[in-house]
Amino acid sequence: MSDPMAEIKASFFVECEELLESLQDGLQVIYDESDDEETINVVFRAVHSIKGGAGAFGLDTLVSFAHKFETTLDEVRSGRLKAEGNVLKLFFTCGDMLGDLVREARDDETHDEARLEPVVNDLEKLIGTDEVTGEQTNIEFEVTALSLDLDIGTPEDAGLGSDPAWRVSFTPSSLLYANGNEPQFLFRALRDLGEIEVTCETPDLPHLAELDPEHGHMSWVISLKTNEAKDAIREAFEFVEDLCQLDIAQSQDQPPGLGNLPPADHSGTDEPMATMGGDADLPAPPDEITSDTDATSDEVHPSPASGSDVPTADARPDPQDLEPASAPPPPIPSDPSAPNARRGQNNATPKATVRVDLDRIDRLVNLVGEIVINQAMLSQSVEAVGIPPNSPVRTGLEEFQQLTRDIQESVMMIRAQPVKSLFQRMSRIVRESSADIKKDVRLRTEGENTEVDKTVIERLADPLTHMIRNAVDHGLESNAERETLGKSREGNVYLSALHRSGRVVIEVRDDGAGINREKVLAKAIEKGLIPPESQLSDGEIDNLLFLPGFSTADEVSNLSGRGVGMDVVRSSIQALGGRVSIHSEPGEGTTFSISLPLTLAVLDGMVVRVEDETLVIPLNAIFETLAVSSDDLRTFGPSTHVINIRDTFVPLIDLGTELGYRSPLGDYTGGVVLLIGQEDGLSAAVIVDSIEDQRQVVIKGLQDSYGRVPGIAAATILGDGQIALILDPADLIAQASGRTKPYSAVDPCNHPSDGTTLEVREW
Amino acid sequence: MSLRNQLRIMVVDDMSTSRGLITQALDDFGIRQVESATDGHAALKKIATWPVHLVISDMNMPGMNGLQLLHALRNAPATRKVGFLLITGKVERDIIEMGKKLGMNNFIPKPFRPDDLRNAVEAIVGRL
Questions:
Q1: Residue A20 burial (C-beta neighbours within 10 Å; 0-12, 13-18, 19+)
Q2: Do A327 and B42 count as a contact with CB atoms less than 8 A apart?
Q3: Shortest Cα distance, chain B CAs vs residue A441, angstroms
Q4: TM segments (chain B) (predicted)?
Q5: Which of A53, A308, A337 sits opposite B92 (nearest CB)?
Q6: pTM above 0.80, yes or no
Q7: To the nearest whole percent, how much of chain A has pLDDT over 90?
Q8: Which letter does DSSP use for residue A462 in this model?
Q9: Contacts of A335 in chain B (CB under 8 A)
Q10: Do A251 and A165 meet the contact criterion of CB atoms below 8 Å apart?
Q11: Do A58 and A176 fall into the same domain?
């Protein structure tokens, strides 16, 4: 087993992250609303707990900083200091710093003294440098020793004390081992029934020289206290019953198994044997007989690290479910140091959670993906065999399909996390970046509890940081400018997350000046990104920001404009299967919308065929499907068609042509059209030969092998084992030539070097 | 029969790290009958079904703090005489005075080493 202290330390750092989160939360509440007592207490407690844990592991830098922070917070608690203005700002900085120190301690990095010092100085300005530590020497306290004649047993007598005791004697034959059984697992199964004590008996154990390793020599006596019936005990031995001698008998009043315990001397420990009616003053809690001498006890003892998991506890009813039998409702004494104005009583009972290694979850996710594929294959085979639709096989299969889907959703939910942690990091970015350029900026967040796949959250941090910095640096005007414009001096950056039709949409919005389109256009022409005579729509100009190498910052500031710009943001979001769009109103501000899939593992897709190729189109991109009739098609320009959808004309895109499977057909009557919608409302009609199926597909990334392929999001394995590409409709449409007429019908001179579609380069 | 085999202890702390550390230390002393709770309310519930000889509780906890827990214990007949060891962040006169009034058996300031804990426990229950 690994070092229990190392485990506790690791869990300390995990706990610190939770505490830091509630610390940030608390500060934000104080900032947004009020500095009520309870919120201050939450913040104080978080710092206090981090300090306490850090002290136990000798993390001195962390302790001393947390201590100063805590002392300052205590000033606020006692009303000597107000948490507002610069003090509150300092608290935010301290919170960030504390987080850094925790992470540095965790990763064994050295911390940057130069960064810490000014913060410590600021704190010391508030609290003074002279620590009041001398006080403790003056406090007189006399320890009250306990006279241990108290009667503690009453509720126990009624409950557990009456559990009948069983004596199980178990002598495995050699065959038991040969068949791969392991007595230890049987004991564990018994432990689930109640309190057990296992004694190994070795009278038959031959001398080492004569020992046949293939032969079993040992037997065990197990004393078990349980409410369960004899059959339940026997059941634990169900699979080995023929491979051992088993005797299960109810013990008499005599403590079970005690008479059969082997002499203590074989165990090698110096602990005296547990006996009833010992001579200690302390009355034995009823039925608690423990023996440290038992050689086999190691096998059934839990690891010492999980102290609350002692086997004695397993048999008990969960105390949480029971009303206290004797404890009165707790009266509250007045306590000067911790005010009782507890509003958040609900945080007294934290939700039960289990921490699970991420690798295990990922394995589960992968396995579920395989199940989905297998299930699809099975469905197809059943279909191929020609089993009638209402046969039990088919109904069973349908249920299986439903279950698979449920399992999949549940598993995906395990990986989902609220975006809160991400938003908190952004709140820090806003604080730091606005301070650097002396703008007053407030981050307003919404939908913090929206859940997204953990990987998505992690990989969103960098692009989002960049966008937030952009908003602060380029989006918002300076304080003075805002005042002249009649806006609030303090700029606002809004960060929101919400679920919209199977995707998560994250918006970064500022209430700044909006995009200066003249400047953007001029810059793009100057940099040779677009031809000088280009006529672009407002939306197209805004989208120029996403071109590689585009930066409008007049001077490269410390914050953004380092040459890597929105193009990097976009490519990293595309790598997550997401899309980013931009919307700007002059004088009102700019909004960036990121739309992301909820999971990176599966998607609902429509399987279509074009020129005998099978392709998958994400279902959530498809608004509508319809059959093409020649009445609906209109010629538009020399090479393209539009289709009339309820009196709206939508450009027609031939998937086969765009992907290079065929030349434009010119006549698309009989084809199937998929209406594709995008974030910005634009849609296109993508024409395919036929729709095969609608099903969940497991996403297999192409990125590692092929890099980014324009118009293609990923690949998948279909039910029949065939590989199909998953399209990225938005990307595909953005790059589409839109050609739907055969080349011969087009005047080659009139080939559009069109200014109407913005060419998006891929890299 | 040694004391440590029979001694039952309830560890109360909202931080799992602290619970882990204390439980680990007690385990090292050979005390195996240890349960833990995340706050005063949970501790009272557990003690009602699993009586203990000694409560080791943190002072600063959400919901019900250490002294409030002590007060509750002292006011219930079943737990009136239970031993109480308070873990304090910093030694504040007010807390210690209040503890004294409520019948706290001993206190130990954070951070402490396992030996400090052992001494503090032994001062209450006798040699382990």
A1: buried
A2: no
A3: 33
A4: none
A5: A337
A6: no
A7: 8
A8: H
A9: 65, 67-68, 95, 98
A10: yes
A11: no
Other C-beta atoms within 10 Å of A249: how many? 11
pLDDT above 50 for A590 = yes
Tokens of A664: 């434009």
pLDDT digits (tens, 9 = 90+) for A134-163: 444 566 788 888 766 544 444 333 333 345
Structural domains counted in chain A: 5
Give the domain extent around A22.
4-132
Same domain, yes or no: A207 and A309: yes
Whether the CB of B115 is below 8 Å from some CB of chain A: the reply is no
Is the complex ipTM higher than 0.90?
no
In A325-438, alpha helices (H): 358-385, 392-415, 420-436
Q: Which residues of A touch B71 (CB under 8 A)?
A: 330-333
Tokens for A573? 């979001």
**Residue with the two structure tokens 């610190």:** A16
Contact partners, residue A620, CB within 8 Å, separation at least 6: A501, A502, A503, A603, A604
Residue A677 Cα distances to A188, A217, A501, A732, angstroms: 57, 74, 12, 12
The model's pLDDT over A420-441, given as tens digits with 9 standing for 90+, comes to 889 988 988 898 888 888 889 9
Q: Say which CATH number the domain at B45 has.
A: 3.40.50.2300
In which band, very low, low, confident or very high, does the pLDDT at A562 lie, cut at 50, 70 and 90? very low
Residues B38, A350: C-beta atoms closer than 8 Å: yes
List Cβ neighbours of A128 (8 Å cut-off, separation of 6 or more): none
Show the 3-state SS of chain B.
CCHHHHCCEEEECCCHHHHHHHHHHHHHCCCCCEEEECCHHHHHHHHHHCCCCEEEEECCCCCCCHHHHHHHHHCCHHHCCCEEEEEECCCCHHHHHHHHHHCCCEEEECCCCHHHHHHHHHHHHCCC
Cα–Cα separations (whole angstroms), residue A523 to A102, A544, A569, A572: 44, 10, 19, 24
Residues of B in contact with A15 (CB under 8 A): 15-17
